């Protein structure tokens, strides 16, 4: 018994008079096809189906949306609860949720009702007392909390809290302000206001990265319009994909995947069109250093002193069997959230701040039937970030560098790449740039489009690619490539017809280009003076002779896999490269310790693992941290093997052949019942995933019924 459940904010349950009814048809792989008379009925069924498969994770997501995750996950959870309060996720939902269209709110209320019903019927599964009931506003608060981390807000909050240097920002130089190492926090700044600093140990908030996306027009494929969704997400947890098909008599019919805590899919296809996403990295955050008075409670703006807004909050922190209340004060200025650290006081402002209309935009995207309708929803600038790659039944393909980039005044000649002065209100922008200002490509002459988390200027081939000079540097559009983007651009450009087999070879390609950070690493390896260390010299020579293909066939594959990962991570986060010799020694020691050799087959090192004991499935993997067949990050198990935690995850392949109905295939790394070891769908897709195979998506109701392994109705009580 602890204080926390009794003092937690209570939520009012949705209208208990509203009745919902949905049919759930489970396929041979347990994937739910959820059918209802109304869209709200379907949303109720989505909540029930996902709770049946992964209520464990759903509870974590709901706890985050209620500011109570520390009561489950201890100090790491309390860090997220701090950010929940810092960003005012609850206040954002309270201000804007009531103004959403009625049918959108009905969707979220129905989804909340489904979660509440499952929780009430399965009390033995509950992690936290009084977590339920929830309502639509709670779900909306979860969106307000999590969305900014798609474009890397954690990369700003973390160093601001700890007082460490900020990473160098992406994007071109702003005229008049030469490129430096980016905004830094002065190490010799006065030790002011340190009592306000957030003292909990800080961990990564889980920045999301990765993904490949391809769209091919009929004239280039030799037949269908093709969309390939190849997202790279964590394989488990709150941002792991959950596959479904939804269908209602109100016209909502969509196959794809969502994250826990959403009533609708975020990517996939309907009858007429489809899209997928990749993470992009525009400059979406601006930081302001505030001038404070001696009291530490007032800041100067336009020559006047203003009071900081402050709010006392209590963070629940689990320690063993107890949950301890931890007091914290969060601050806001006219700019946005405020953080005190030993170098000063800083406010930050980010794209999409104080908005939740993405909840409505995604719903409308699901139900769009033409390219014009679909693009009109993106033009709202309601979805704060992520690239969109699109294809449809009419043969249209499109790429949109979607981002609600701050509408920064260009005439102020400010250095938006650095810490801005906090005493000028003219630097506090309002809203996003116009949709017309962001990069986009529609129906290029090449007949193909792709993105692999790269700059938008390599997307369609040399004849069609956009030019950086056509876009303002104040937009902060990234100017980065990945190995995947270099490989994809080369392979797509070299191909004649992009038929199914050619696209399959490209999607599962395991090669590296010797350029960018990979080239830098190998150049450094060749220059290493290892004359005094025969073992390291042997390992270096093995790497120098590598074929740059992570296919588990070469003797150097394992060592190369280990070496590249940390350099890829540094490049992606704009951080300095690690020391090459130190990394080489570390990885040689690891392989010698666990395998007795420096050249074990990569398939013995890199594994896809799920379950324990007799239910454990342990399979070999191919691909590297930045190959098109992506095995991005892993945890090191006790036996020294690398168990994949982030990389190729939900894959969906969609085709529209002329005169035919849409057809799609998909695969998940594990199975539909991601946290149910007793389920036959806990590991049943693993072999398909390892073998580069896909399973059919039963989009059409008659197909779902014909392939049903279970069919049942769920109704509200």
Question: Can I get a quick summary?
Answer:
This protein is α+β, with helices and mostly antiparallel strands.
Explain what you see.
The structure is a single chain. This protein is α+β, with helices and mostly antiparallel strands and 717 residues long. The protein folds into 2 domains: 46-509, Glutamine Phosphoribosylpyrophosphate, subunit 1, domain 1 (4-Layer Sandwich), CATH 3.60.20.10; 534-627, Aminohydrolase, alpha-helical knob region (Penicillin amidase (Acylase) alpha subunit, N-terminal domain, Orthogonal Bundle). Helices cover 29% and strands 22% of the residues. The strands form 4 sheets. The chain has a 10-stranded mixed β-sheet. Strands 3, 4, 20, 21, 22, 23, 24, 25 and 26 form a 9-stranded mixed β-sheet that branches. β12 (309-319) and β13 form a beta hairpin. The longest helix has 27 residues, at 39-65. It starts with a helix and ends with a strand.
Q: Which features characterize this protein?
A:
Glutamine Phosphoribosylpyrophosphate, subunit 1, domain 1; single chain; 9-stranded mixed beta sheet; 2 domains; Penicillin amidase (Acylase) alpha subunit, N-terminal domain; globular; 10-stranded mixed beta sheet; 717 residues
Radius of gyration: 25 Å
Question: Per DSSP, what share of the residues sits in E-state strands of 2 or more residues?
Answer: 15-25%
> Helix/strand-derived class?
alpha+beta
- The tally of strands reads 27
Q: CATH topology of the largest domain, anyone?
A: Glutamine Phosphoribosylpyrophosphate, subunit 1, domain 1
């Amino acid at each position: 018994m602890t204080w926390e459940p009794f003092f937690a904010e209570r939520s009012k349950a949705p209208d208990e008079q509203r009745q919902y009814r949905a049919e759930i048809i489970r396929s041979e792989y347990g994937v739910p096809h959820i059918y209802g008379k109304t869209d709200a009925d379907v949303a109720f069924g989505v909540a029930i189906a996902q709770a049946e498969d992964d209520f464990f994770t759903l509870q974590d997501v709901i706890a985050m949306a209620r500011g109570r995750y520390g009561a489950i996950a201890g100090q790491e959870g309390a860090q997220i609860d701090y950010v929940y309060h810092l960003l005012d996720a609850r206040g954002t939902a309270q201000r804007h949720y009531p103004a959403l269209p009625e049918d959108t709110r009905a969707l979220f209320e129905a989804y909340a009702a489904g979660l509440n019903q499952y929780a009430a019927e399965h009390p033995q599964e509950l992690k936290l007392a009084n977590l339920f009931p929830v309502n639509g506003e709670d779900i909306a608060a979860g969106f307000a909390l999590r969305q900014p981390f798609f474009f890397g807000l954690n990369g700003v909050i973390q160093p601001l809290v700890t007082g460490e240097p900020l990473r160098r920002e992406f994007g071109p130089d702003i005229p008049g302000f030469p490129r430096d190492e980016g905004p830094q926090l002065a190490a010799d700044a006065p030790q002011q206001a340190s009592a306000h600093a957030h003292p909990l140990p800080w961990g990564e908030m889980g920045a999301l990265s990765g993904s490949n996306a391809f769209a091919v027009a009929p004239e280039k494929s030799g037949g269908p319009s093709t969309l390939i969704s190849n997202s790279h997400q964590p394989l488990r947890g709150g941002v792991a994909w959950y596959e479904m098909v939804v269908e209602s008599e109100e016209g909502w019919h969509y196959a794809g995947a969502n994250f826990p805590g959403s009533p609708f899919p975020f990517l996939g296809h309907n009858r007429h069109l489809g899209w997928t996403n990749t993470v992009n990295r525009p400059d979406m955050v601006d930081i302001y250093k505030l001038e404070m008075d001696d009291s530490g409670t007032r800041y100067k703006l336009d020559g006047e002193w203003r009071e900081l807004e402050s709010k006392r909050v209590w963070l629940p922190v689990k320690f063993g069997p107890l949950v301890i209340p931890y007091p914290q004060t969060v601050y806001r200025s006219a700019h946005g959230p405020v953080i005190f650290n030993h170098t000063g006081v800083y406010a930050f402002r980010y794209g999409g701040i104080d908005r939740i209309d993405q909840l409505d935009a995604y719903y409308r995207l699901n139900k769009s039937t033409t390219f014009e309708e679909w693009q009109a929803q993106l033009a709202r600038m309601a979805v704060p970030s992520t690239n969109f790659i699109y294809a449809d039944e009419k043969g249209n393909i499109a790429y949109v560098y979607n981002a609600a980039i701050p509408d920064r005044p260009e005439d102020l000649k400010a250095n938006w790449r650095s810490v801005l002065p906090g005493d000028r209100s003219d630097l506090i922008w309002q809203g996003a740039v116009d949709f017309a200002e962001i990069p986009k490509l529609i129906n290029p002459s090449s007949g193909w489009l792709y993105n692999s988390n790269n700059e938008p200027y390599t997307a369609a081939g040399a004849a069609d690619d956009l030019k950086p000079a056509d876009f303002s540097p104040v937009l902060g559009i990234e100017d980065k490539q990945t190995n995947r983007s270099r490989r994809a651009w080369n392979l797509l450009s070299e191909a004649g017809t992009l038929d199914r087999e050619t696209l399959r070879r490209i999607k599962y390609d395991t090669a590296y280009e010797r350029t960018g950070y990979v080239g830098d690493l190998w150049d450094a390896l060749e220059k290493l003076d290892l004359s005094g260390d025969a073992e390291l010299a042997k390992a270096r020579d093995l790497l120098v002779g590598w074929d740059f293909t992570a296919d588990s066939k070469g003797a150097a594959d394992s060592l190369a896999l280990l070496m590249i990962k940390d350099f890829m991570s540094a490049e992606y986060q704009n951080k300095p490269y690690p020391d090459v010799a130190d990394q080489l020694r570390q990885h040689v020691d690891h392989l010698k310790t666990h395998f007795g050799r420096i050249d074990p087959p990569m398939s013995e090192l890199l594994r896809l693992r799920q379950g324990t004991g007799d239910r454990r499935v342990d399979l070999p993997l191919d691909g590297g941290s930045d190959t098109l067949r992506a095995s991005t990050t892993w945890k090191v198990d006790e036996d020294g093997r690398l168990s994949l935690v982030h990389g190729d995850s939900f894959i969906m392949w969609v085709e529209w052949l002329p005169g035919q109905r849409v057809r799609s295939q998909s695969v998940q790394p594990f199975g539909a019942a991601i946290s149910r070891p007793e389920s036959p769908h806990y590991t049943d897709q693993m072999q398909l995933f390892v073998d580069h195979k896909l399973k059919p998506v039963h989009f059409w109701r008659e197909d779902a019924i014909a392939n049903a392994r279970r069919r049942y109705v769920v109704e509200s009580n």
